[in-house]
Amino acid sequence: MTDATDATGAEAEETVLRTTGLTKRFGAFTAVDRVDLAVDRGEFRSVIGPNGAGKTTLFNLISGAMTPTEGTITLSGADVTDRSPAERVGANLARSFQLTTVFNGLSVRENLRLAAQARDFGGMSAARRLFADPDGFEGINGRTDTVLDDLGLRPVADAQASDLSYGDRRRLEVGLVLATDPEVVLLDEPTAGMSGDETDATIALFEDVLAEQTVVLVEHNVDLVMRVSDRITTLNAGQVVATGTPEEIAADDRVRDAYLGGYTA
Ligand SMILES: Nc1ncnc2c1ncn2[C@@H]1O[C@H](COP(=O)(O)OP(=O)(O)OP(=O)(O)O)[C@@H](O)[C@H]1O
To answer: What stretches pass through the bilayer (predicted)?
Structure first.
């Protein structure tokens, strides 16, 4: 029930994201303390824990926003510990909602095309990417069309992003991530600030379109985590307390009492 158990044999080949001894200190304070994660291809992994447990810091280390004090991060076997966030996205290794921007003055299709082009032409300015001839770029139009269909955005493909309903805008935000065809999607509290209905709609969207995707989610919302996760890692004081299926985590007394506020499956 720890990540060490999937760090062997054939399963290791399927590990897309791995952190080894990942540690972040701020002065004498250790926010993330020797964290080992092994996230398999197609897995939906959530990271939970009480306030100050180190979730956001761990997320920042994986996304590249922060540099670890110790330890390594590999994505698809490549050591990305010293790569910048842009390099990690440009290398098509990971993508988070925090790195996406919806351009309100552009159509849904144009927004998706920009995101799709970002993967192949990450070094270009947004304007150059947008106005570059997409017919000349193999795969970009195809990826845009695929995302339009997968997310049910085809009916609003030519609508300006500023005119979208709330739900369609959320779909577009997910679409911008998927348009880069990332190996791993990083999600940082995607339902923060949402109403109950909006959260339910977002959960349904994730279940619908992120089912095959490798995802790492950092989240406070326990209901969301229990519904969408294949496995959950619980952190406390920067250390991994337990990793397991939602059922295993819900049945773990330490986790239930300390982190889930009495949640029962
Ligand atoms: N830049 C920083 N400098 C100093 N201490 C920091 C810094 N960033 C985070 N910390 C500390 O590290 C600890 C972990 O913070 P982090 O934000 O990662 O926790 P969290 O689990 O995401 O918490 P929350 O659920 O409240 O968002 C906290 O005690 C925080 O005060």
So the answer is: none
Q: What angle (nearest 5°) sits at the alpha carbon of residue 96, between those of residues 252 and 12?
A: 55
Residue nearest to atom 2 of ligand 1 (CA): 26
Per the structure, the complete domain to which residue 33 belongs is given by: 1-93+182-265
Tokens 């993967």, located at residue: 119
- What is the ipTM, given to two decimal places? 0.96
Q: Is 147 in the pocket of ligand 1 (CB under 6 A)?
A: no
Q: In the predicted model, what is the mean pLDDT of residues 199-214?
A: 83
Q: Are residues 52 and 165 in the same domain?
A: no
pTM: 0.81
Q: Between these two residues, 260 and 111, which has the higher pLDDT value?
A: 111
Q: What integer pLDDT is reported at residue 7 of this predicted model?
A: 46
What CATH number has the domain bearing residue 64?
A: 3.40.50.300
Q: Are residues 244 and 254 in the same domain?
A: yes
Mean pLDDT of 118-122: 58
Nearest atom in ligand 1 to 50's CA: 25
The answer, yes or no, to whether any atom of ligand 1 lies below 6 A from the CB of 54, is yes
Residue at 204: amino acid letter:
A
Residue 176 sits in the same domain as residue 189: no
Whether 180 and 115 have beta carbons less than 8 Å apart is answered as yes
